[in-house]
Amino acid sequence: MDDPSITSLSRAAAMIRQIATLSLLSCVVGCGADVPETDVAEDEPTFTDGVATSADGVAIHYDARGTGDPALVLVHGWTNPRAIWGEHPATLSRTNRVVALDLAGHGVSGADRRDWTVDAFGDDVAAVVDQLALERVVLVGFSMGSGVVLEAAERLGDRVVGIVFVDTFQDLDALQGSDSPDEDDQFEASIRAVWGDTAFVRAFAFTPDAPDSLILLVTEMMPEEPYDHWFTVDRAFDEWVAAELIPTLQRIEAPIAAINTAIPPTNVEAMQRYVPSFTVDTIAGVGHAGILLQRVEDFDAILLEIVERFVSAATETPETSGRNDLMSQAEQDRRVDYIEFRTTDIEESKRFYSEIFGWEFTDYGPDYTSFTDGRMNGGFESAPAVAAGGPLVVLYSTNLEAIEAAVRENGGTIVREIFEFPGGRRFHFTDPSGNELAVWSDR
Q1: What range does the domain containing 348 cover?
Q2: What letter would DSSP give residue 255?
Q3: Taking the complete model, does pTM exceed 0.85, yes or no?
Q4: Residue 304: which CATH number?
Q5: Is 329 a member of any domain?
Q6: SS3 (DSSP) at 119
Q7: 182 Cβ partners below 8 Å, 6+ apart?
Q8: How many angstroms separate the CA atoms of 63 and 354, rounded?
Q9: How far apart are CA 85 and CA 67, in angstroms?
């Protein structure tokens, strides 16, 4: 269902703004509203209600409970307080340390911020993690909070075991430029016009069969009017998405996964261009707010499974996993870790190298495939032609003659027959696209 008040926005702005609108309308409590009780009493032994100081001096309120490792840090979306997480801090704390915080200008945290930026929100999260001295964390961001956890991850470095997006960034191909001032004003006017409208809340934040009690809970606990700085935040987030999202994704070293609603569908291939290991799990039959508030057990089960995968990946080594799994691992610093070839026919390249050398491939759209040979990772990118020359990639084999024969049988061309060199023997060949490689052996 389309909102006529935003149809004049660009495709990218409409997507991001819809996420923001849903976050705002799914707010279980607004800033300054009463916070509903959870089923964990604040006097339980592991509960901590604290305040950290962000880099610009703003007070950031948080609560923490549980003791398991890694800690799960829950970051809400636009206009939400930490209470948007509902029962999850209590239920997840049965297995893990769980931290939920109010970003500046949200919930009970300070609003005396001069520069409302995604960077500053990343500082908020880092301040809480630092104050609690958390050594290993999984950052979980809902809606706009997904951008915030990316900024926090850059500050926290190798303490971040993984990142989980919740119902956001479903289609990077839809991202374009940021909005004009007129479009910003239109968006703000549209939100103010429908603020507190129960029909709008149901249509955009929930599915039609969501219980009336949940709709009423949301609308009754929203503040009487939206706060002015929320719209400054929205504009800053829009600009950050347009300029910084993709470069930030490319810099992040931690693995990233998502838990999204089934509608709209997630464009996995688009995300995997920048985060090759990206995975997504979906929860059907819920809206943007319902993914947190309706299917609590399902959400927790998916999240904990993702965390388990993150932990397993973080503890793997080449000796235990049989391969260097992530090209950004700290132990690979300053080593050759990824090789990329051009190919005129991706399917033929996959057939050629899997048949001869046993490489395993993972496709990322029609124009790119990655491979692993059990030790080294690389990829093939579609190109109209392959230029000769460049660095020579040298493979190893225990049976040089057998590999040479296999190259011939599978459409490769031997360009230098087997010859001896100090330390062994080798031959050179070109693959069906024209890439020249060599194979050597010490036998």
Answers
A1: 335-441
A2: -
A3: no
A4: 3.40.50.1820
A5: no
A6: helix
A7: none
A8: 51
A9: 19
